[in-house]
Amino acid sequence: MTYFFETYGCQMNKAESAALELVLRDRGWTASPHSDTADLVLINTCSVRATAETRVMGRLAHFSALKKKRPFSLVVAGCMAERLQEDLLRRVPAVDKVMGTTSRSIFPSLLEAMENGLPAGGESVPLPDEKPVFSFSASHLEEGAFRSFVPIMHGCDNFCSYCIVPYVRGRETSRSPSAILAEIAMLEEKGVREITLLGQNVNSYRYQENGKTTEFPDLLELVASAVRGIRWVRFLSSHPKDFSPALIGILKEHPVLSRHIHLCVQHGSNRILQAMNRRYTRERYLELVDMLRTALPVSTLSTDLLMGFPGETEDDVRDTLDLMRRVRFASAYMYHYNPREGTVAYSLEGRIPEDVKKERLSRVMAEQTRITRELMRERIGVREMVLVEAVSKKNPDELLARTQRDEMLVFPGPASLIGTFMDATLAALRGSTFRATEVRPCPGE
Known about the structure:
This protein is of the alpha/beta class. The chain is built from 13 helices and 20 strands. It has helices spanning 11-26, 50-67, 79-84, 86-91, 107-115, 165-169, 177-189, 216-226, 245-253, 270-276, 282-295, 314-327, 354-378, and strands spanning 2-7, 30-31, 40-45, 73-78, 97-99, 147-151, 153-154, 173-174, 194-198, 206-209, 212-215, 232-236, 260-262, 300-307, 331-336, 383-391, 398-403, 408-412, 421-430, 433-441. Strands 2-1-3-4-5 form a 5-stranded parallel sheet, sandwiched between helices. Strands 16-17-18-20-19 form a 5-stranded mixed beta barrel. Strands 6-9-12 form a 3-stranded parallel sheet, with helices on both faces. The longest helix has 25 residues, at 354-378. The chain is globular and about 60 Å long.
């Protein structure tokens, strides 16, 4: 039997889709290159923004029309499935099953029903009796990949006023260190060279067992000490309130840990940060940046910026632009406020008109483009270790690679180098990508 996945949203969704694919392959299923020929179509959804849900509804309309032409099972998983649950079945009758973020335990039952010629929906599927709870998969490796996500925790306890995640992902649950290390050991056996530890708020990781507490710095120490073939360990996403001096000390001690850190600030105004329930000030954030750059002078920072929050003024926008100039982020994910029903901010007064939100966002984006360009020019002539990722889409004779600081570069070379570490000089800029020269294998490759 065959399957086809569409995955939307964050890296956690991508990791969980990879884990579900492992279940399918273990049962003898094969991936279909097109949804038109699959026995199972699964959409793993996102609820962070309304636009993501709108896109999914459009895809469900497409698959509803397709089901009129041929039979197949249509399953909706992920955060949107968790948020809407049974209402989604009523709104889109063609959907056979809704599988939220805490109900993946039903997946083998869905597959068993289909293998026995039964539909994936309705009472034909025997469901577990226990209350749905989140459980971590043993592996999240995509077939043939040399990089892998490794979820270490799930859920969020922060309840930022604009964010739907705690309501669709639930409270924080950390994975045992032994399970994390076992997955990493398995990944090394399969030739993985880079891993990214994942969590909605990764540095709030905290696991207690037999009277012993393992926090995120402790876990990083364990991982950094255990890896051999894996040469880079990244982590996403970090909350400033949990970025401790102990964590900075571990990063400084172990070069295998990424020198690129995604540290979400969201805004530069204390008034807006308080309204967002971010639980830090701009002064605390800038202090943290100074600590990081003192300990790790070669590190780079990226961030998230949310403009147009209810009540935002021009002074708040100026505060954000000022913070950007002080920190000089290498890159930023920038977006404007999108009301999410069920969050605290949804009922706040002082909503900003759409045209004003977009204009403010455009100023922030222009400033970030300027900063990124300046930082990239300063890097010309520097020699770096890079991981070769793929053949360039623009030129089949060139390879695309990435530095530990998350910079992209291209250079001529054969596809056989994909998945290997090389040493390269960042010689010139082409748009937002470096051109590299003097490329040679790193020691140990």
